[in-house]
User: Which sequence fits this backbone?
């Protein structure tokens, strides 16, 4: 599945920059398909190295790797090359390296090592806070770049933590924040207050009518209304206009400037919709050919796939991704080592977040935040990161019986 996705991604990168009026060499390092072929070749070398190393090495070097990439995240803010308003890359000639992509791998290793330590249980508040520091310290550094898309991916580590016993209250609170924040964008604060108060009254009527429950409900409703008011203020006063517009275009596509913040999304939706059931055919996408969709070989690669291969091609690729994630979860569950299981779930969660947010972004269900589609989007850092993460898991899985014998 990995190699199928990588090769199909490479072909779609070629299709996204194809121009029938020019003789484009698919292997030339002067264009994106050629560079991606180079990254695929180096990824094969990385696979060989990963499989040759001792499987116990990955757990032992987790703190070192995490510390190294934290330093790189700091360094890139100072010495990195600014692209599209973010200093997130180191430039090496024609090639760029994005430290945040590989930091996900280091974070997955360190989180798995910490949570698999004897005596560490996520029912304990201190351990919860320590886990959150591991997960979200990179987020603070990435937001200095700033790169909201990369920062969002680190919230995927909540999934393996939940699998290992993190109380569901954190997920419930997170969902409540998302729901209230979304309501704040589309409704007046007074309407939100009425909705929250109604929910509070309904909760009291359906549950215990004790004084303690009533007071707790009142407190939660008041806190929720206060959060909504604070979110509204922060959204209007502190969020940069371009990020505000990217969010607003999801809810008000006819209001936000269609030639400004709404342009990328509108063109992406046109390309996707024009593909119909079976698509226009490989290299025959008109929206793609004439460069209507910006960033089409990176963030919007899914629109190339949809235009040229239609609903059917999209369904096949989505099925491949779902199959890959299910396979990773299966591998994680059969591990005898807690470290390996947590690491496996971390990889599945990272791929799930990338896959879901990228596709939702291109069809207008999520703001445009610059998240690549795994194995498909052009970029060496992304491909290296996913390749290393996946094959480290396979290397560990190859020795799962040795882990049993040791334990």
Assistant:
């Amino acid at each position: 599945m990995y190699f199928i996705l990588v090769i199909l991604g490479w072909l779609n990168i070629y299709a996204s920059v194809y121009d029938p009026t020019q003789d484009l060499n698919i292997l030339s390092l002067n264009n994106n398909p050629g560079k991606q072929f180079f990254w695929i070749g180096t990824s094969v070398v990385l696979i060989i190295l990963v499989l040759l190393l001792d499987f116990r090495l990955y757990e032992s070097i987790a703190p070192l790797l995490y510390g190294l990439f934290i330093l790189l995240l700091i360094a890139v803010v100072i010495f990195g090359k600014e692209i599209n308003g973010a200093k997130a890359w180191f430039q090496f000639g024609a090639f760029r390296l994005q430290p945040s992509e590989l930091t996900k791998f280091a974070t997955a290793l360190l989180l798995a090592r910490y949570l698999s330590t004897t005596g560490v249980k996520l029912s304990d508040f201190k351990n919860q806070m320590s886990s959150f520091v591991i997960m979200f310290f990179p987020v603070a550094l990435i937001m200095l770049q700033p790169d909201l898309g990369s920062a969002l991916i680190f919230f995927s580590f909540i999934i393996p933590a939940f699998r290992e016993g993190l109380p569901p209250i954190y997920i419930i609170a997170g969902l409540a924040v998302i729901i209230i924040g979304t309501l704040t964008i589309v409704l007046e604060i007074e309407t939100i207050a009425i909705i929250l108060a109604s929910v509070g009254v309904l909760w009291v009527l359906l549950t215990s009518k004790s004084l303690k429950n009533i007071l707790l409900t009142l407190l939660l409703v008041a806190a929720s209304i206060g959060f909504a008011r604070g979110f509204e203020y922060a959204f209007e006063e502190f969020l940069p206009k371009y990020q505000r517009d990217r969010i607003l275009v999801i809810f008000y596509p006819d209001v936000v400037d269609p030639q400004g913040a709404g342009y990328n999304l509108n063109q992406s939706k046109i390309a996707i919709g024009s593909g119909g059931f079976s698509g226009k055919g490989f290299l025959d996408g008109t929206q793609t050919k004439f460069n209507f969709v910006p960033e089409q070989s990176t963030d919007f690669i899914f629109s190339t796939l949809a235009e040229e291969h239609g609903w059917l091609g999209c369904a096949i690729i989505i099925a491949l991704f779902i199959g890959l994630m299910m396979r990773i979860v299966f591998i994680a569950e059969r591990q005898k080592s807690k470290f390996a299981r947590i690491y496996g779930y971390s990889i599945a969660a990272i791929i799930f977040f990338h896959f879901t947010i990228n596709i939702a972004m291109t069809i207008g269900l999520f703001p445009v935040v610059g998240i690549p589609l795994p194995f498909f989007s052009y970029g060496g850092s992304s491909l290296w990161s996913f390749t290393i993460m996946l094959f480290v898991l396979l290397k560990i899985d190859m020795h799962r019986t040795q882990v049993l014998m040791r334990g």
About this structure: The mean pLDDT is 89.
